[in-house]
């Protein structure tokens, strides 16, 4: 008797339902049912911006970034995105 799990039909599921399913299931249980696909990922071009900060501010950014496990320029991008999003929502 086979105990292999069958992958449910997700064609009518919302992204949230699919997310919830994979949060509680392992893809390893359904590996044989999956097919290989090719995906092309295009990064949006980024424009470099120069911002002058004090040495103390840069040091503080680096400390916070290390605690969060990311680079300080990534942290700056995240903070700017969050502020832009909050400003749009207001």
Could you describe the 3D structure shown?
The chain has 90 residues and is mainly alpha-helical. The chain has a domain at 55-89. Helices cover 47% and strands 0% of the residues. The chain contains three helices and no strands. Helix 2 (55-68) crosses helix 3. The radius of gyration is 21 Å and the shape is elongated.
Low confidence ranges: none
The overall pLDDT, averaged over residues, is 92
Largest sheet properties: none
Order of helices and strands: HHH
What is the number of E strands? Answer: 0
Q: Please report which band the strand proportion falls in: under 5%, 5-15%, 15-25%, 25-35%, 35-45% or over 45%.
A: under 5%
The gross shape turns out to be elongated
State the secondary-structure class: mainly alpha
Number of helices: 3
Secondary structure layout plus pairing:
Layout: H1 15-24, H2 55-68, H3 72-89
